[in-house]
Amino acid sequence: MRRRILTLVGAMMLLVLVAFAVPLALLVRTVAIDRAVGTATAEAQSLTPLVATADRAALNLSVAQVDATTVADVTLYLPDGGVLGTPAPRTPLVELGARGTSASTDVAGGREIVFAVRDSAGAGGAIRILVPDAELTRGVGRSWLLLAGLSLLLLAGGLLLADRLARSLVDATTDLAEVSDRLARGELAARADAAAPAELGIVAGALNGLAGRISELLREERENVADLAHRVRTPLTALRLDAESLRDPADAARISEGVDGVQRAVTGAIEHARRRGTDAATCDAAAVVSDRVAFWAVLAEDTEREVRVDVADGPLPVAIGKGDLEACVDALLGNVFAHTPDGTAFAVSLVARREGGARLVVADSGPGLPAGAAAAERGVSGGGSTGLGLDIARRTADQASGALTLDRPPEGGLRVVLDLGAPQRPES
Fold first, then answer.
1. Where in the numbering of this chain does the Histidine kinase domain appear (predicted)?
2. Cβ(282)–Cβ(317) below 8 Å
3. Residue 385 — very low, low, confident or very high, per pLDDT cuts 50/70/90?
4. Is the domain of 35 the same as that of 53?
5. Burial of 68 (0-12, 13-18, 19+ CB in 10 A)
6. Are residues 232 and 307 in the same domain?
């Protein structure tokens, strides 16, 4: 953008300068020629009355003085054929002057000017003046250099002003892009410079208003989630008390464990709502995946499932918070247990990506997805569930600048590939 503005301004200024400088340069040259011709003509015309009144000796002296004081060559052709002043051949213009016609023309070496004169007897003669080219263009080269220098100075000044204007526009645009990117990453405190030039300032103000509105909506959401979670805790407490009053200790323990699970989920929802937009979205994927696989391995052993685990050595930093990644891994492994029969083997692998981040693969040898199922879409599942497990994984991938992919391996089953981006390095 900056280069285009400079190119446009430079081209326009160049056209304007050429439109004014070229005619002005030609005018300077014309004025210099007219000045040189006028000066020489005035000096030569002073000899005209002397031809009719002065004798030959005085006339010769006068012509010599004029010839010596002017840069032009002055020659007087007398009616009797005599020549005074600078020797020069009789040109056609001189012959024309001897017949009573004054004229001028450009010749090799300068401009020839002829005046018709008559002696005391009325016989015709001529005064010839040859103004050299050097005199005709004296001072023109210097004037053209000054004009060219002034044009370049104006062009440079115009480009400098255009560059400052373009830089302010580009900086304002870049600032808007950076603020938008920071808002997209969850930095809701980011604000654009509303003092940006022209319409960019209006856009910056609108973006700041949008950021403020997003912050308000998120705050309201956190408050609503926290309020809902607080309301849920009361019946959960009642359920816990009912469970503890059961006579069968096994039933009491089982129900209490379920209540504890719901309590943990509620607490996690509150913590997630409170930290949204404020947590540093980074964690060690290797540590999180290893911890969650170890947790689910106990249930896998109880349901006679073979588990193959291949987790790369950490740390493997990814651009997602620890709690979010734990919820994602739990959702993917929970889907395996919920939608495959007991005894179905599954595998979990975590490797580093070449461009940074990590790739998590959860594969099972179960029935897989039904044909045409779009389980990655929110609320859609091919197994009769709500589909929110894979939706959690999809949102996790989006938050980590990654992608979620589902496919069917040749040996059958379902393979879920979750790419997680690397944390962005802080700007220096």
1. 227-424
2. yes
3. very low
4. yes
5. exposed
6. no
Distance in angstroms (rounded) separating the CA atoms of residues 185 and 81? 104
What type of residue is 220? E
> 41-55, 239-253, 302-316, 362-376 — which is least confidently predicted?
362-376
Domain-embedded: residue 184: no
Name residues whose C-beta falls within 8 Å of residue 52's C-beta, 6 or more positions apart in sequence: 117, 118, 119, 120
The string of pLDDT tens digits covering residues 111-124 is 999 988 888 788 88
Are 213 and 297 found together in one domain? Answer: no
Distance from first CA to last CA of the chain, Å, rounded?
25
Last residue of a domain, one of 118, 140, 162: 140
- Bridge partners (DSSP) listed for residue 415: 363, 407
Please tell me the predicted confidence (pLDDT) of residue 193: 82
**Could you list the residue range(s) of the whole structural domain that residue 322 is in?**
283-420
Q: What CATH number is associated with residue 404?
A: 3.30.565.10
Distance of alpha carbon 141 from the chain centroid: 43
CATH, residue 58: 3.30.450
Structural domains counted in the chain:
3
Q: Which of 221-230, 256-265, 279-288, 345-354 has the highest mean pLDDT?
A: 345-354
Closest CA to 309 of 342, 338, 351: 351
Quote the pTM value.
0.44
Measured distance CA(340)–CA(316) in Å, rounded: 30
Is residue 45 domain-shared with residue 23, that is, in the same domain? yes
Residue 240, token pair as written in the block: 């816990």
Does residue 253 sit in the same domain as residue 204? yes
Q: What CATH number has the domain bearing residue 252?
A: 1.10.287
Claim to verify: residue 242 and residue 353 sit in the same structural domain: no
Question: Is residue 408 in a domain?
Answer: yes
Residue 250 domain flag: yes
